Amino acid sequence: MPGALPGMPEAFPGMLVPLPGMLVPLPGMLALRRVTQTTFLVTFSPLRAMRTQKPRARLLRREEATMFRQDGARPARTMAMVCTALGLAAMIVAPLARTATATTPTATPTATAAPTATAIPTATPTPAATVAEQPPARRHAPESPAWEDAEAFAGKAFVYPPQGADGTTPPRPVTVMLHGMCGHPQSACAPFVDVSTSRGWLVCPRAEDACGGGTRWRLHGPDDGQLVEGSVRALVRSHEGEVDASAPRVIVGFSLGGIAAVQIAQGTTGRYAGLVVVASLVHPDAAALKKAGVKRVVLAAGDLDMTSAPLQEDARTLQAQGVPTRFVSLGKFGHGYPADMEERMREPMTWVAGGGEKAAVASGG
């Protein structure tokens, strides 16, 4: 056959005749394939994207929530750091300032005129009190209160002399007042100045351990009692012949100072005849009080103070066990001194020191 390739079977060229016709639709088929792929992508890709976007959206929302929480917590952390820094600075600076003022006792009132029963206090303001030791202005002015360096101790005591003391009167007994936690001797003693100085000396020791802007009692071992005795010995030394250190004393304690007062009163013999505890969670022991020579006890608290009910129960227990005890209500008040603290405690303080004839009661006052 003409045109046949050498060696090719004669039938094969005939087979190639339809080939161009078969190849003619090939471009159209390829185009159709592209159209089909495009249609598929247009139709199904959004659905596929929606499936993949849902987890991604949830992840974004979680990341946004995390960022929001972090952004909200950042100011709180910053404020906490600022407050902590300010608190540390106050704890460092306040004791230094207190020590500087204590070494130069300029809070002594001027002695240009003798104070009268209606005199207005002329002493410079005492340090701001803590733990609610903030009484109103006293009715009577103390006569030349001053700091005394405790003998053999680094501590000090703020001392109020007896009313009318002129160096010619007989030696007078001592009342000791212990301030509360992080408190100050001046503010804690304020409501007890008039009634105590009408009887004798009022000694208000300052605890040894720094606590915020004030000091606190240690409540373990003999440290607190030794500091009190060092303060009294310093008073006897500086006012020779004017202090009756052998006469039974009265010891008063507010809050944490009340616990220290009970420990000191029960830990000595024949030194304290009267014990006064104000707003303190402490339970005096009747047998220990009798052994120590304590004759009378006064427990006091505001009606809204958490110590009120326990102290009333302690008063009833001590009274039943043979220790004359009175509970004094400070009125509708919480943990601290009410405005009329001085008047509320005047008669009980006189009674606990051995004066007055009012019978001991377990509650009221």
- The end-to-end span amounts to 145 Å
Order of H and E elements: HHHEEEHHEEEHEHEHEHEH
The share of residues in extended strands comes to 5-15%
Q: In which order are the strands of the major sheet placed?
A: 1-2-4-3-7-8-9-10
Low-confidence stretches: 1-27, 97-131, 134-142
What would the principal axes of the Cα set say about the shape?
Answer: globular
Structural class: alpha/beta
Give a short account of the largest sheet.
Answer: 8 strands, mixed
What can you see in these coordinates?
- The structure is a single chain.
- 43% of the residues lie in helices and 13% in strands.
- The protein has 10 helices and 10 strands.
- It has helices at residues 12-16, 19-23, 26-103, 185-189, 193-197, 223-238, 256-266, 286-292, 308-320, 341-352; strands at residues 146-149, 156-160, 174-178, 201-205, 209-211, 214-216, 249-254, 272-278, 296-301, 325-329.
- The chain has an 8-stranded mixed sheet, sandwiched between helices.
- The chain is globular and about 95 Å long.
Features:
globular; 365 residues; 8-stranded mixed beta sheet; two-stranded antiparallel sheet; 10 strands; single chain; alpha/beta
Summarize the structure.
With 365 residues, the protein is an alpha/beta fold. It is 43% helix and 13% strand. The strands form two sheets. An eight-stranded mixed β-sheet has the order 1-2-4-3-7-8-9-10, sandwiched between helices.
